[in-house]
Amino acid sequence: MWLTIYIDIAFCAIACWQNEKINTSQTWHLIAADERKIYLANIFSSLVACGVFFFLQQIINAFLLLPSYGAESLVHIYRDFQLWSAQYDPWDNVLFHWFFIVMIILFIYFFVSFTNFTSKLITNYLPFKSTLWIRLLVIAVLVIVAVYFGLIIMSHLQSFIDAKKGSVDPIWLDDILLLVVNLVFGSIDLWFVHSFVEPKIANY
Questions:
Q1: Cα–Cα distance between 103 and 112 in angstroms, integer?
Q2: 32 to each of 27, 36, 38, 43, 47, how far by Cα in Å?
Q3: Nearest alpha-carbon partner for 118 in 179, 191, 30
Q4: Angle at the Cα of 87 (from 84 to 90), degrees rounded to 5?
Q5: How far apart are CA 153 and CA 157, in angstroms?
Q6: Which residues, other chains included, contact 182 with Cβ-Cβ below 8 Å and sequence gap of 6+?
Q7: How far apart are CA 14 and CA 18, in angstroms?
Q8: Distance of CA 57 to the CA centre of its chain
Q9: Which terminus has fewer CB within 10 Å in the chain: N or C?
């Protein structure tokens, strides 16, 4: 059952690739709509697609576990993922775990768009001819820098938790942190779309 997480990651990666193709597609940009609305529509439709894909996966897992758990096989699966409360209390971290998954998926989409837009912007202003290898190098540098700063922020956050709450990391605090990060990257992506993608398409 836990192997399905890797399939989810692969599906999310394919969705990211498709989204970035749409972001740079001439055909999609012929739609008479604000580029930022198209961008957000693609992001949230991909989020819904991930949710449907995950749900169908668990239905298949539930059928496989029917001999062991009977009619409660689907409930058992979601409890293993901490997405179903054993005490039938929806506020017993269940909603926070669901929200955490949503924030993680949005972060992946926003960060992939950020690296894509930023790498294109940097390579466009380089004094020499841009190539695919240069773009990949720029993307790698951006990812390394983001991971480095992310580890610094998480270490400081963990130190704060250890000092104030003990060694337990409350899921709601992770949710708030991811929400803030998503708002930052999402806002930057929308600015990129409005300032660089839309004018470029309009000039064709």
A1: 14
A2: 11, 12, 10, 18, 23
A3: 191
A4: 55
A5: 6
A6: 103, 106, 107, 110
A7: 6
A8: 19
A9: C
pLDDT at 203: 44
SS3 130: coil
Q: Are 16 and 109 in contact (CB under 8 A)?
A: yes
Q: Is 147 helix (H, G, I), strand (E, B) or coil?
A: helix
User: Do 142 and 112 touch, CB atoms closer than 8 A?
Assistant: no
The crossing angle, in degrees rounded to 10, of helices 171-192 and 94-124 is: 30
Average pLDDT of the segment spanning 174-196: 88
Q: Are 93 and 171 in contact (CB under 8 A)?
A: yes
Give, as one character, the DSSP assignment of residue 178: H
Q: What percent of the chain has pLDDT over 90?
A: 8
Are 65 and 73 in contact by the 8 Å Cβ rule? The answer is: yes
Spatial distance between the Cα atoms of 20 and 97, rounded to a whole number of angstroms: 28
Residue 81: is its pLDDT beyond 70?
no
